[in-house]
Design a protein that fits this description.
heterodimer, A: about 500 residues, B: about 140 residues, Rossmann fold, five-stranded parallel β-sheet, globular
Chain lengths: ~500, ~140
């Protein structure tokens, strides 16, 4: 199966698509404020004309590339390109300051590669097993899984439970707009003909991620510039590559990071960010003697572990997406939307009905990882150059692109209007600290949740207790309680760590 | 040069922390010594991008001060975040001090390249009221 996937993904045209994906992905990963979720949303209208395999390969490349790109900015600028690289900045930037930037970048890239590859292998073997199991799951079981997804995304992530849940509720509401599938009643359309088909997910995602972010940046544009740390070339003749000692100190954190990151990515518990904090904490605890003293002053383990963890988590996120059809991050949610646009419903049946596509996608992950490893280090100069683009140019481009994409969905001006309204909403959400990811995920997952919930209730003749009737639901709800208990402790540790880079960023920006 | 009377005039240097900027700095120092005038160094950024290679950070600034200190000429360094283009900052400083000369570094470019990319140096050359010394690295 996987071999067939490789046969498809290795075709020159798909290799080019993968290259395009990882290239764009790395670029957006490097840029602070612009992430893979926004990029996938922006590209969705364009990739409409592509066949599904090509589109999914591009998106997977963007997803993986974003993970690599974020580390570059973290290490050289002490400004995490995206949230999964916050921890990398802790030790990585200290290493760069000490003239060991090249070694830090190398351990991040090689660690990402190692973790990405191992995690993809795990995905390859785990996915069919989970599918076998998931095929027996009923509507109530899916309801339980989605409740977990909603609550973890809304409440566990981000700093404020209330704001997360508010954002989630808003997403659910927007997801309800349109015609009810079961009774064909119009809901929340307020008599507007344009609302009967519902509001397109792409509009909401582009509005929140792209337009909202652009407005936010415009409102507080004059920030920076930030000093770029060298690769370590200034002191000697050539950049100090990873030494033998660095390798010795890196390989264990890579493996540990992988096995911390992958499971966390798999359960809907917050994607990549949480795993990086856990990995960092683990490395710090496990380091001995001299190496331990280096923590806080540029310990290579503190870069190797978290970077491996975030890539492993990225692969882990694909497990519930491809086997259950449940996205656990904003980017995964956008990929799910992409599937739906091609009339493919992700879920336990995906591998049976669209096996060729899934295996080509997984094969392209192996290829994409290799490309990223080869691309990343030699092109560091280019990635830093991307950061020199004046923000007005960058965001003007994104706005034009977003508006164009919104218009091309239905060739209706109304869609552009909705985009702008949601963009303004996104700006205020950003301004007042409301996370936007729960809203997007809720909007995508909400209608699926409704279908399963109503199906479950119809089967049980509206007996609500049916929702906790199967052993699987007990396990899931039990795990949910445990997760909340665990998150309490993790969050405390995370806050302690988060305080560090934020301070230094503020200093640098002055 | 100490036998020369200070003219009391000002030379304004548009400084960037690159090889070109260093060459311009050297030329500006020589020029100040010859004229016996003081040197005003301008380095500004619009802060509209994450990385601005033309803005001098700690190391560059230290080096700049060291070079200026060694030269023994009277000098002032102004570094700030501006809403204007770097060229406008330099011209404004020149007008404010009634400068007798502006020194800038100029990159080599083809006419077509010039047409595509407007530049700060071009703006200074055209808009300045005083003489402009364009230094090539």
């Amino acid at each position: 199966m996987l071999m067939e996937g490789f046969a498809t993904a290795a075709q020159p045209i798909y290799l080019l698509y993968a290259l395009f994906g990882v290239f764009i992905g790395t670029a957006v990963g490097v840029l602070p404020g612009i992430g893979p979720a926004m990029t996938v949303a922006l590209l969705m209208p364009i990739t409409y004309s592509l066949e599904p395999t090509a589109a999914m390969i591009v998106f997977a490349g963007i997803y993986y590339g974003g993970m690599y790109g974020g580390s570059t900015t973290s290490i050289l600028l002490n400004t995490p390109g995206e949230s999964a690289s916050i921890v990398t900045a802790l030790e990585g930037n200290k290493m760069a300051k000490a003239g060991r930037g090249a070694a830090a970048l190398a351990t991040a890239a090689i660690g990402s590669f190692v973790a990405g590859t191992i995690a993809t292998v795990l995905l390859t073997f785990l996915a069919p097993v989970i599918v076998d199991f998931a095929i027996n799951l009923g509507p109530v079981d899916f309801v339980a899984l989605m409740v977990v997804a909603f609550l973890t995304i809304g409440a566990l992530l981000g700093s404020s439970v209330l704001r997360g849940m508010a954002s989630l509720a808003l997403g659910l509401f927007i997801g309800l707009i349109g015609v009810d599938d079961t009774t064909a009643q119009q809901r929340y359309t307020f008599g507007f003909a344009g609302f009967t088909d519902g509001i397109d997910v792409v509009l909401v995602a582009v509005g929140l991620f792209a337009v909202g972010e652009a407005l936010y940046v415009a409102a507080r544009m004059r920030k920076g510039p930030i000093e770029v740390m060298g690769m370590g070339t200034s002191s000697g003749n050539s950049a100090k590559w990873m030494t033998k000692d660095d390798w010795k100190r890196s390989w264990k954190p890579w493996l540990r990071g992988t096995f911390i990151g992958f499971p966390i990515g798999t359960v809907p518990a917050g994607g990549a960010d949480v795993s990086t904090f856990l990995s960092y904490a683990a490395e710090r605890k496990l380091a001995k003697g001299e190496n331990k003293k280096q923590f806080g002053r540029g310990a290579i383990e503190g870069v190797a572990g978290p970077e491996a963890a975030n890539n492993a988590a990225a692969a882990g996120v694909l497990v519930p997406l491809l086997t259950l059809g449940i996205p656990t991050t904003a980017t995964a949610a956008m990929m799910l939307t992409a599937f739906q646009r091609y009339q493919i419903q992700p879920g336990p049946l995906l591998m049976e009905t669209n096996g060729a596509l899934v295996w080509a996608l997984i094969a392209s992950l192996y290829i994409g990882n290799l490309m990223l490893l080869v691309l990343n280090l030699p092109l560091v100069g280019l990635w830093v150059k991307i950061l020199q683009i004046p923000r007005p140019y960058l965001y003007a481009g994104i706005l034009v692109f977003g508006a164009l994409g919104a218009y091309s969905l239905n060739f209706a001006l109304m869609d552009v209007g909705i985009l702008l309204v949601i963009g303004v909403l996104g700006f205020f959400m950003r301004q007042y600290g409301y996370p936007v990811a729960p809203m997007v995920v809720a909007m995508i997952l909400g209608p699926m949740f409704e279908v399963q919930l109503r199906r479950g209730l119809q089967i049980s003749q509206n007996d609500v207790s049916a929702l906790v009737s199967t052993p699987f639901t007990w396990v899931v709800y039990g795990a949910l309680v445990l997760m909340f208990a665990a998150s309490f402790f993790i969050k405390r540790a995370q806050k302690k760590m988060e305080a560090l880079p934020v301070e230094s960023i503020a200093e640098e920006a002055k | 040069m100490s036998n020369m009377e200070p003219s009391g005039g000002t030379v304004v240097l548009g400084y960037v922390p690159t090889a070109l900027g260093e060459a311009a700095l050297e030329a500006a120092i020589t020029e100040c010594r010859r004229r016996g005038s003081r040197l005003l160094v301008i380095n500004s950024t619009r802060a509209d991008r994450t990385v601005d290679p033309n803005y001098a950070f700690t190391d560059d600034v230290e080096l700049l001060h060291a070079t200026l200190g060694e030269s023994g000429i009277e000098h002032e360094v102004r570094q700030f975040t501006s809403t204007m283009l770097a060229s406008d900052d330099v011209i404004a400083a020149a007008e404010e001090t009634g400068a007798e000369l502006i020194v800038i570094g100029v990159r080599k470019r083809s006419p077509v390249g010039k047409m595509l990319m407007g530049s700060d140096s071009q703006r200074i050359l055209l808009q300045a009221d005083c003489n402009v010394l364009a230094v090539k690295a």
